[in-house]
Design brief:
heterodimer; A: 45 residues; alpha+beta; 1 helix; B: 325 residues; alpha/beta; 5-stranded parallel beta sheet; 53% helix; 8% strand
Chain lengths: 45, 325
């Protein structure tokens, strides 16, 4: 792994241990994650 | 404090689009049995994204994602997790399975795995700021853990929306007879009964079918929702009040209903009278997919004396329970 892409995970979640690291790509993907735009029932236009 | 998670149980043809406009206007993203066409994807934030990942993936899978530098692969994994969690909760809430578009085997597999969990899941794992819509919350089908979570934490806040059952029945007959595929959605029973009603020429006979067929869409939804009507922690709103002056109600009743919702959702300090008036002007939306006439009391023009007798026989107690007798 490229060390420059890594940063420590904060203690904000209990999902993943503090000792794990995450890539910049993972961090960015989390920040930009969105809700689904589609409804359960599909209404055609 | 604004409610993070909301579930609207809006009986079919009871004016779901009215509540949708209110909830959308209050800033909630929409999910479930409501059209969200035109809605932009809403950021869910790091915390919620991590929670969703934790709900759907194993610790090893998450660790692998965290080590990945493949941005598109991570995006896809997160998107699949959001979809899988939403689908799993749709099933847990008892929503009927519908045809799914844009699916992929991996998402289907993740959904199945999520649904196979016997413990450890909770509705509050879903992203905040989302208002779910369903037409039914059948005590016999809804996940028991959901009911326990709601009972213990009051999450999500539940709103019941209903309408005069006679107008609901008539609206459903019209809706199905018109068979506009753009408005029928993917409700399996809509498709079936659309075919049935379209084969009947006499409009009076169509209403007769709706009044006597035990499987007619929405035919038993009022009975199944009685527990919601009676429950003290469920906010009840009606089509007749929400529709406002454009639909034959009054502005006062409409604003009162909107205030009831905003107070219930902890928005009393954030939404003032002017905000509610602005919201009220947007509620009556003729562009809604399911909008037809938006009137109250139209059943009087279509029900014969025989229809009224049939209705009283089958639904008389419902009229009284819901306050329409």
């Amino acid at each position: 792994m490229n060390a420059t892409l890594l940063r420590p995970v904060s203690e904000e979640t209990d999902i993943v241990s503090d000792t794990l690291l995450e890539t910049a790509e993972f961090t960015a993907a989390l920040e930009e994650a969105t809700t689904e735009s589609a409804s359960l029932y599909i209404y055609t236009q | 404090m604004k409610a993070d998670h909301v579930l609207v149980v809006s009986l079919r043809k009871a004016g779901t689009h009215l509540v949708k406009e209110v909830m959308s206007g209050l800033g909630y993203a929409l999910n479930g049995a409501v059209s969200s066409s035109g809605a932009e994807p809403r950021p869910i934030g790091r915390q919620a994204a991590l929670r969703v990942l934790g709900a759907v993936y194993t610790p090893d899978e998450i660790a692998e994602l965290k080590r990945s530098t493949d941005r598109s692969g991570i995006d896809q994994a997160i998107s699949r997790a959001v979809t899988a969690l939403n689908r799993a909760w749709s099933a847990r809430l008892g929503m009927p399975p519908t045809a799914v578009v844009n699916s992929d085997p991996q998402t289907d597999w993740l959904t199945a795995r999520e649904l196979s969990r016997q413990s450890g899941y909770q509705f509050s794992d879903t992203p905040e700021g989302v208002c779910w819509f369903t037409h039914d919350l059948d005590l016999g089908r809804v996940d028991q853990r959901f009911l326990l979570e709601w009972s213990r934490s009051d999450t999500p806040k539940i709103i019941l929306n209903y309408r005069d059952p006679r107008d609901v029945l008539l609206s459903m007959v019209h809706f199905l007879t018109e068979r506009d595929s753009a408005r029928l959605g993917e409700f399996p029973d809509h498709v079936v009964y659309g075919d049935i009603l379209s084969s009947v020429q006499n409009p009076r006979d169509r209403i007769g079918i709706a009044l006597t067929d035990p499987d007619f869409p929405g035919g038993s939804s009022f009975e199944r929702a009685l527990w919601l009507l009676r429950h003290p922690r469920v906010c009840k709103v009606t089509f007749e009040s929400l529709v406002g002056p454009d639909g034959g109600s009054s502005a006062v009743a409409q604003l009162g209903e909107i205030k009831k919702i905003t107070d219930f959702l902890g928005l009393s300090d954030d939404v003032d009278t002017a905000d509610r008036e602005t919201l009220a002007r947007k509620v009556f939306n003729r562009k809604s997919h399911t909008f037809r006439s938006g009137r109250t009391g139209a059943w009087r023009e279509h029900f014969t004396a025989e229809h009224q007798a049939l209705f009283e026989q089958r639904y008389g107690h419902i009229l009284r329970e819901y306050g329409y007798a």
